[in-house]
Design goal:
Elements lengths: L4 E2 L2 E2 H15 L3 H13 L1 H13 L7 E2 L2 E2 H16 L10 H17 L1 H10 L13
Length: 135
């Protein structure tokens, strides 16, 4: 992979987009530095991220176990909805935070696939004491 290009997009464009997401989310730029560094180490995650950057939708080409990036984003949305029930509903309209959290979780899940599966199946973002499954 060319050091100046990532899946056909200039690395500076990707980095600037991550910086923008951090600004929108209210995160320190160090979060963006770390996310970019980790994405560069994982071609699957980077391809998913570049696709999201270009299309504002998930590619879903790669999975961790049975979970795609879209599954992780939906799971993150459940957590964000739980925040809406609180007085501080900052995450309600914070797409930057959603995207950053989704990709951080996707990257984390590559090294922790069983724990990711456990969390997604048991942490629904609701007040239920146990998780739920479909089927």
């Amino acid at each position: 992979m060319d050091d100046n290009m990532l899946f056909g997009v200039k690395t500076t464009e990707i980095y600037d987009y991550i910086s923008h997401l951090c600004e929108v989310a209210g995160y320190e730029i160090s979060v963006g530095h770390e996310l970019f560094a980790e994405l560069k180490k994982n071609d699957h995650a980077m391809e998913e991220f570049v696709y999201y950057y270009q299309n504002e939708k998930c590619l879903c080409k790669y999975t961790i176990g049975e979970y795609s990036i879209a599954d992780i984003m939906i799971w993150q949305m459940d957590h964000f909805r739980a925040h809406m029930d609180r007085l501080d509903n900052y995450n309600r309209y914070n797409n930057g935070s959603l995207v950053i959290c989704t990709f951080i979780t996707f990257l984390w899940g590559y090294n922790n696939p069983q724990e990711l599966a456990r969390r997604i199946s048991s942490e629904t973002g609701t007040d239920l004491s146990s998780g739920w499954t479909i089927g």
